[in-house]
Amino acid sequence: MPSGIRWAVCVAASLALAGCAANDLMVKRQTETEAKVEHLIQSDKRAEQRMNELSGQVQSQEDQAKAVSAQLKQLQDTIRELRTAQDELKARITLQAAPKIEVINQEAASKGKDYGPPADYVKAFGLYSANSFPAAIEAFAAFLKNDPKSSYAANAVYWIGECHYSLSVLPKARDAFKKVVDDYPKSAKAPDALLKLGYTLAAMGEKDKATAAYERLIKAYPGSPVAARARERLTAN
């Protein structure tokens, strides 16, 4: 082979080898780049998965907090109702233990909650217990006039409503129960007043308003025992 041809062949071979090397380097860099992209994608997926896990944990804690809050509210409602029942029991015991003669210039009872209901409240409640509803209404009204800020004010208004309800004076019963609900929403008598407001409205033929009262009771005082009775009324309707 002439020397010129051998030289040309060598040059061509060198160029071919150089081209292959450059191609290999490009493939290597492309592979590395793809590996880095894949790593970033996997990291992003792991971060998204972790974020979803954290979101789930936060939601679970929020649900637990809501459940605890609902249980706490139910306990508070129960405590208020127990205190009311205790006060009414004290009133009944006081009535039973009271002498049958009228006491002149009786010493005023303490207005403190720990000392039980005031004497004039006990007297009014005694009239109600004896089914003397008109006299009980006057007695409770006098009690409210003398001590409008008494801790037993809501109870007195409620029993006025009960008296009117027993006498079938439904508009006045409605107004009394509504006053308890509107003016004393934190009173232990508020759930009872809502239930009796529903009963009264139903007796007056105002079924839609009665339903609204039952629904309001269930929503505002879900843990109250009377809420179950409101649900029964809604189911019956």
UniProtKB/TrEMBL annotation:
InterPro entries: CpoB, CpoB_C, TPR-like_helical_dom_sf, TPR_rpt. TPR repeats lie at residues 191-224. Residues 44-92 form a coiled coil. SUPFAM superfamilies: Myosin rod fragments, TPR-like. Gene3D superfamilies: Tetratricopeptide repeat domain (1.25.40.10). It comes from the Bacteria. Residues 1-21 form the signal peptide. Keywords: Coiled coil, Signal, TPR repeat. It holds the Pfam family TPR_6. HAMAP family: CpoB. NCBIfam families: tol_pal_ybgF. This is Tol-pal system protein YbgF. It comes from Oryzomonas sagensis.
